[in-house]
Structures are given as C-alpha cells and as structure tokens.
C-alpha cells in the first residue's frame, strides 16, 4: 500500500441544505388588459421582481391609463414574497381554457394561479366560472400536471348585500378553487374602476412566501424574507407604503363593521377575506378555504399543496423504474418481496424530504407483494402522508389564585 496511509473521503448532505423548490411559483392572469410595450397579449412572461414587470411596460401608469390593476397586483405579490417567481399573462378576456392549459403545460413549474377580472359588473353565472377553472385543473391532472390552487375574485359587488345573502361556496365542489373577497380600501378608493377589486396579487404573494403546509392566514410564517427576520409576525400591513392599514370586503364594506356572526358566516361559506385580531396590530387573511364542502380532505389550500408535492415527489422518484425489470417470486409468480421493499424505499426516501422540511409529520409507502403484473396491469402502490395540524384558535383557561397549585 506504500505511503498512502489514512484516506479521508468527502461526504455530502451533512449540513441539511437543499436546492430551491418550485413550491411558490405562481401565475397571474390579468383580465381586461391591453398589450404592454414589451409583453404581448396571452403570452406568459416570468418576473423575479416588480422592476422586471416595469421594464416591459407594466407600470403604475399602465394601470392608470387603462383603468385596471395589473402593476399593483404584481407589486403586492413581490412585496409579500420578495424571493418569489411570478409568471404574468395579460389577457383581453379572449383567452380560452385550451390556451391556459397550454401555458401551464409549457411552464410546468407553476403551482398556483390567480385570476384578476378587472370587471365592472358581477358575473352572470359564477358557478359556471369556478367550475371551468376546476375543469382546467382536472384536465391537467389526467396528464400528471398538478396545479394546487386557483384564486378567483368574488362576485358580490353591491354594498347593500348582507352576508346572510352571500352564496355558499361550499356548494360549488371545486376543491382547487378559492374565492378571495379581501380588499385594501386605500387601493379601492384610488379610482372608480377599482372599487370592486379583490386582492389576488396579495393573496398569491401570501401563498408563495409560505411553505406548502402553512395556512394562508397564519399570523406568522416559518421562513420570513431576510428584511423581516426577527419580527414576531408577518402581516399584510405595511405602514410605510400605506398598504393594508385596514381591510374591506370586495363590495367595500369594512371588516370592522362585521359582527362576530357575520365573520363566522363568511368562514362557513368558504370565503377568504382579510381582517384584524382585536387588540393586535396588523391585517391578516382569514383562512385558506377552497370552494368545496368542509368535510373534504381538500377544503383548504395547504392540504392541496401538500398532496400535490407528495404526488410529484413520488412520481419523479418512481419514474426511472417504469418499463424496468421487476423480480418475480419463482414459487408464486407474484412480485418478489425484496423488489417490493426496494420500491417502497425509493418512494419513502422521496417523501422523507417533506418530513425533514417539516411539511408533513410522517409518511408511508406500501406495496402488496401478492400482486401479479401483466402488460395491462399497473403496479399498485399505497402511500400515506401524515399532515401537520393547524392551530385555528386557542382557548386558554386563566384565573386568579392566592398560590400556585
């Protein structure tokens, strides 16, 4: 062996570092738009900063000239998610579902989509509108292309509409679509054209900055942008820029004017709005409802995002084994138990990255070795993700005493 002596090999992975994920990449569709100087209609362009958008002509002046909100939504996205990636499409309201699906297939890293209508009137058939968005998600899912969340603006424009008269989103049964009715009153007051806008850009940014397992309405977030490290929470409020000093519903009614019963009703009906906690500074989103029944496993955005990430990880991990050889038990003709165990390990290793990131609490992958495969018989695998709990409320029993018991 000569004078080689001791050999030290370099290991990888001990620091627990990971590559950036695509979890927070979003697409913003701006309806009622005209082409910008550097961006044609119905063309997707990725921006990493609001300045990128301004460089192609989507500026505050673009909004003002065209009586729409485009720059504002982009600005809000990056204000809340400064490290986010945002694809933007300017749509003159002629984009078809086929064109939308083509954009999403061509940019497979997009996980969430927001639709800005810039509309002066409510939709005649809101149920058909949200069903169409869900159908796009369903169609893509058949091609193993998962879009986790679609955010749309609400449809109640009249300020006289009582909360009791709001439609119940739980009846829509569109588990990937969420209805946003939050509004920053300062923005709504800028022009008559903005009076019924809903904060889609803000909502997309709030999702983008959070992990797949985090609730959109969480008072704090797990990984704050560097400028906010050390802060105790992560509100929508930015006093320096006069953003979200208070909150309205989309029809202009202030959150402060809602009764506890009305707030509960909006939650029960599956709306996403914004408001504040009594005695606590800052405006926050109410929750992360999707427009489907509360009993559904997918009645909140974080459940959809978690499932989609697990599904994508499993598929990517197992694809290299497709059309590969699989050992057979010579006595039974079924799958070799050793081979089944190896595939289980491959799948579980992929899901363990979510456990390490704190996105789920546990995972399991199981393959029944009694299966017999044929050309038209797929290998059946069962996977489970143990989702994290979300603290929606805290109840404390507090009393006075003469001594500690």
Describe this structure in words.
There is one protein chain. The chain has 405 residues and is an alpha/beta fold. The protein has two domains: 26-301, no CATH class; 323-405, no CATH class. The chain has ten helices and 13 strands. It has helices at 50-55, 60-66, 71-80, 97-106, 126-141, 185-188, 200-208, 260-268, 301-318, 337-356; strands at residues 26-30, 45-47, 86-90, 112-116, 149-153, 177-180, 182-183, 248-249, 271-272, 274-275, 284-285, 360-366, 382-387. The strands form four sheets. It has a seven-stranded mixed β-sheet. A two-stranded antiparallel sheet has the order 7-8. Strand 4, helix 5 and strand 5 (149-153) form a beta-alpha-beta unit. The radius of gyration is 24 Å and the shape is globular. The termini are far apart. This is DUF3383 domain-containing protein. InterPro entries: Phage_HP1_Orf23 (IPR019694). Pfam families: DUF2586. It comes from Flagellimonas eckloniae.
